[in-house]
Amino acid sequence: MKKFLILSAFLVLILASNANSQSMTTVSYSMGLATGDLGEYASTFSGRGFTLDYRKMVQPNIGVGFYGGWNVFYDERPFDSYTVDNRTVSGKQYRYVNSAPMMIAADYYLKPGEDFNPYVGLGVGTIYTERATDMGIYRFTEDAWSFAFTPQVGFLYSLNRYAGISVSAKYNMGLAAGDFDKGQSYLSFNIGYVFMGN
Q1: Which secondary-structure segment (H or E) carries 32?
Q2: Tell me: the pLDDT tens digits for 17-69?
Q3: Which helix (H) or strand (E) holds 126?
Q4: Of 191, 176, 193, 189, which is closest to residue 37 (Cα–Cα)?
Q5: Nearest Cα to Cα of residue 120 among 150, 153, 149, 151
Q6: How far apart are CA 109 and CA 130, in angstroms?
Q7: Whole-model pTM above 0.85?
Q8: pLDDT at position 198, please?
Q9: Nearest-angstrom CA–CA distance, 44 and 32
Q10: Alpha-carbon distance 116 to 155, whole Å?
């Protein structure tokens, strides 16, 4: 997580230096639902997350930039016997997942210049995923940096020329890597405030 925080601080500095160009910076509250192998590990809906998106408009309907975020998932499993790393341990499980995507991203806006502006986009980069399982005094952890894709859909609603509201759905798909022999993916729902630069 330390690397992610350092990268986030660096990206904020870039945003400040580009504040006078035509751009959009979106800070969003993010809710998540794990899918696939990650969903089998932590199946509960999560309300803990945030995203940061920056787009510089290279055409009236095309924005390029980056996307970063952090989602936390949590699940409880009943008292039982579980096999972890060729060991069988009995107890109640508490499962935690931290997922942090960092990607280059581009969006295509369907109605540039209008107050209600739907868009589709794609991010390509990496996701850091950490899974931790607590059982009594024991903690078992797995983690990986994996190559990832994030298709997204959403809309931007302009409040005025300087601000707007964004609603989006992103599907974060991390490929198998590190401690994970299957991909780690989740769907996020994001509601954000948009700062618009000139």
Answers
A1: strand 23-35
A2: 444 458 999 999 999 999 999 999 998 899 999 999 999 999 999 999 999 99
A3: strand 116-135
A4: 176
A5: 153
A6: 34
A7: no
A8: 67
A9: 9
A10: 7
